[in-house]
Structures are given as structure tokens and as C-alpha cells.
């Protein structure tokens, strides 16, 4: 363990049960074990990491998926560990809460930026650095969404460490003043730590609740319905987007400053 990269090379298999070499050039990230199961069933591949902090699978076409868990700390960890593999592109398939009265459950969001309200990303970049996706990667995702006759929204997502904030009036008013489109717990961290590690990254978020109203707060039952109705489509769009990038062989460049 002579340097940071040595640690990442040792810990990526330790966390996922998969060797560094078995990860593909393009990787889907998610918070949901059932996305990994669905992925493995679609491609007929094995799942590693059962009983470990993260589960992973790699298809024969070289596309991988990782369930890294929930929250910004886990988001930073997985992006740090992926520095051992240096994938060509990473796409986060997550859920978010809609913050606009026009938000509808089942909407897709391609965030143009994320506000760094989680704090974790401050360990990687100064607060003035914006949390941005790799827009070339988002171009492929956008094309796959619209090719299905679906719509998506773009805007700024607020990323927080707080899990229970729905009845904090002051916090809600801050979100409204910042004109955020949605709220989640991972996107800003993934963008910033991806930038720090020179990994191209993006996010396709699924609106799973509208927590600005009491009846819109997510419950176990409502989340189950969202998963049943839109989860498979969410995953499929992610798979098709990353496969398309791989087929076209377009490099997503990371510029140093």
C-alpha cells in the first residue's frame, strides 16, 4: 500500500467481490440491489459481492453495474475505488424527489448541475467548483430517452446528507429560493469525485416522490409502485445509453486545468 492507487486496487475487489480487471469500460451505478439482479438476469451473468458492502455484475459485452448503497459517503467511496479501473464512462441510475409543483412521479431528470449541500465533496474540491456531469455522456442518454418517445427534464439537483427534512420549513424555503428541480443524496458527490478522479460521469434520475406535499412523501408502498412501473425502463435506458457509447467508441475527454 505505497500510494492511493494501491489502496483502491485492493479495496475495489474487497468491497465488490470482483477483480479490477473484470469491470468493464462503462459502468452503471445504482442504489438498488434489484437493479443488479435485473441486470444479471438480462445478460445471464453472475453477481459478486453478496454479503459485502457493494454488489456488482459484468455482462459479456463489457458493461458493468454496481450497487454502492445510499448516501454521499458511499458515492464518494465508489468513485474513489473506480479510480483503480479508470472506466471510460459512469452513469448513475438513481431516484430523486421532485421539488416543483409540476413534478410528476415517473419523470426522468438529466441534471445539468448539482448543488453541493452534502459536505462530502468539500474533501475533494473547493466549494466554488461546480458539480457538473460530462455533457457528452448525457447526449447519449438524452437520445435514448427521446428515441422511445419519452420526455425528460433538465435542471439543477440539490444533494443533501439529510434524510428527514420534509417538515423543516426553513430548509424547504432555501430549496425554493435556489429554484432546484429535485433533491437527492448522491449526485453532486458523484460529479465532484468523478471530476477529482478524472472519470467521465452522468446521472439519469427517476422522480420517485414529490416531498413538497405531505401526501407526496415517499413510503414503502409508493416506492414499490414506482419500481414496478418505471424501474425496468430506467435500467434499460441506462444499459442502451452506455452500450451506444461503447459501440460508437467516442472518447469522453477529461480536460486538465
- Give, in order, the helices and strands: HEHEEEHEEHEHEHEH
* CATH architectural name: 3-Layer(aba) Sandwich
Helix content: 25-40%
Tell me the distance between the termini.
28 Å
As a percent range, the share of strand residues is 15-25%
Spatial strand arrangement across the major sheet: 5-8-7-6-9
Radius of gyration: 17 Å
Class, according to the CATH hierarchy?
Alpha Beta
Average pLDDT confidence is: 92
The total count of helices amounts to: 7
Biggest sheet record: 5 strands, mixed, barrel
Low-confidence stretches: none
Q: What is the total number of structural domains?
A: 1
The fold-level CATH name is Rossmann fold
**What is the CATH homologous superfamily assignment?**
Nucleoside phosphorylase domain
Shape: globular
Please provide the count of β strands: 9
Instruction: Give the structural class.
Output: alpha/beta
Short key terms for the protein model shown above:
alpha/beta; single chain; Rossmann fold; 257 residues; 5-stranded mixed beta barrel; 7 helices; globular
Give an account of the 3D structure.
It is a single chain. By secondary structure, this protein is α/β, with parallel strands linked by helices. The protein has helices at residues 4-16, 33-43, 72-81, 135-147, 169-177, 187-196, 220-248; strands spanning 26-30, 47-48, 55-58, 63-67, 89-98, 108-117, 152-160, 182-184, 201-209. Strands 5-8-7-6-9 form a 5-stranded mixed barrel. Helix 5 links the parallel strand 7 and strand 8. It is globular, with a radius of gyration of 17 Å. The model has no long low-confidence stretch (mean pLDDT 92).
Amino acid at each position: 500500500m505505497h500510494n492511493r492507487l494501491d489502496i483502491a486496487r485492493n479495496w475495489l475487489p474487497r468491497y465488490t467481490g470482483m477483480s479490477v480487471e473484470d469491470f468493464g469500460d462503462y459502468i452503471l451505478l445504482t442504489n438498488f440491489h434489484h437493479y443488479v439482479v435485473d441486470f444479471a438476469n438480462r445478460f445471464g451473468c453472475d453477481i459478486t459481492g453478496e454479503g459485502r458492502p457493494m454488489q456488482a455484475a459484468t455482462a459479456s459485452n463489457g458493461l458493468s453495474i454496481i450497487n454502492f448503497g445510499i448516501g454521499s459517503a458511499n458515492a464518494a467511496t465508489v468513485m474513489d475505488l473506480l479510480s483503480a479501473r479508470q472506466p471510460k464512462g459512469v452513469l448513475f441510475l438513481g431516484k430523486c424527489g421532485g421539488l416543483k409543483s409540476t413534478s410528476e412521479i415517473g419523470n426522468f431528470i438529466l441534471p445539468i448541475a448539482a448543488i453541493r449541500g452534502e459536505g462530502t465533496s468539500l474533501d475533494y474540491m473547493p466549494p466554488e467548483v461546480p458539480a457538473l456531469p460530462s455533457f457528452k455522456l448525457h447526449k447519449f442518454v438524452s437520445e435514448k430517452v427521446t428515441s422511445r418517445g419519452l420526455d425528460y427534464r433538465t435542471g439543477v439537483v440539490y444533494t443533501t446528507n439529510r434524510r428527514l427534512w420534509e417538515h423543516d420549513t426553513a430548509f424547504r424555503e432555501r430549496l425554493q429560493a435556489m429554484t432546484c428541480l429535485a433533491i437527492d443524496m448522491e449526485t453532486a458527490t458523484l460529479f465532484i469525485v468523478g471530476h477529482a478522479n478524472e472519470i467521465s460521469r452522468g446521472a439519469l434520475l427517476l422522480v420517485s416522490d414529490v416531498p413538497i406535499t405531505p401526501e407526496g412523501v415517499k413510503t414503502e408502498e409508493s416506492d414499490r409502485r414506482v419500481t414496478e412501473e418505471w424501474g425496468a425502463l430506467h435500467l434499460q435506458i441506462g444499459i442502451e445509453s452506455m452500450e451506444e457509447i461503447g459501440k460508437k467508441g467516442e472518447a469522453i475527454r477529461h480536460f486538465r486545468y
